[in-house]
Amino acid sequence: MQVHSYIDHTILKPTTLVADIEKVCEEAKTYSFAAVCVPPPFVKLAKQLLEGSSIKVATVIGFPFGYSAIEAKIAEILLAIVDGADELDVVINLIALKNNDWQYLANEINHIMPVIRGKNKVVKFIVESGILTNDEIIKCCDIYGAAGIDFMKTSTGYAETGATVEAVALMRKHLPEAIQIKASGGIRTYEFAVQLIEAGATRLGCSASVAISKQEAASGAAGY
């Protein structure tokens, strides 16, 4: 299945070191991951380290709680793009969602999308599916699907529940076909990665990427 080619090799801990970024980028090249996902202050470094490769640099916006003001998220996006980010993983305003303020969420995405589209970058909206009801996930599919995002992403990795096969399958059922799904949070085995892909995920956010790739190689499916 070539699971390694689906992976965003991720390090987002608040104590991330330069050495951590160097290691993640080297591993991404070794295992041919799709992208690295790094904290905003390290976008420029990751871009330099991956120069000449096809590996994308992703970073997070409004992370991890999503309640930054719209203007703050846009400022973060613009700075990340200046630093060389190819992909932006944006946490939606979960406070607005839980207070049933869908108009706020529509306003947020309507301000963010033109900025990212104007720069021809990829955007993933993180909905934190582990703390949402099925009805809330379906509403997210409706609003973000209509906005024409590139990916809906399950989780930040900071909630109690990360990616689940059920949430990915529910998203796949209710999103337009052109919109992809990134599963993230708690993906630690090759078997679980395969299950998420089979449910409809086309990208996986993992910090256990190397272990997963070694399990894939042991299964004889890697083919790098």
List the helices and strands and how they pair.
Layout lengths: L6 E4 L7 H14 L3 E4 L4 H7 L6 E6 L8 H14 L3 E5 L2 H5 L3 H17 L3 E5 L7 H14 L3 E3 L11 H10 L5 E5 L5 H10 L3 E4 L2 H11 L5
Parallel strand pairs: 1-2, 1-8, 2-3, 3-4, 4-5, 5-6, 6-7, 7-8
Describe the structure.
The chain has 224 residues and is an alpha/beta fold. It has one domain (3-219): Alpha-Beta Barrel (TIM Barrel), CATH 3.20.20.70. It contains 9 helices and 8 strands. The protein has an 8-stranded parallel β-barrel with strand order 1-2-3-4-5-6-7-8, surrounded by 7 helices. Helix 3 runs parallel beside helix 5, helix 6 packs across helix 7 and helix 7 (165-174) packs parallel to helix 8 (190-199). It is globular and about 45 Å long. The relative contact order is 0.15. The model has no long low-confidence stretch (mean pLDDT 97). Pathway: Carbohydrate degradation; 2-deoxy-D-ribose 1-phosphate degradation; D-glyceraldehyde 3-phosphate and acetaldehyde from 2-deoxy-alpha-D-ribose 1-phosphate: step 2/2. It is an enzyme of class 4 (lyase). GO terms for molecular function: deoxyribose-phosphate aldolase activity.
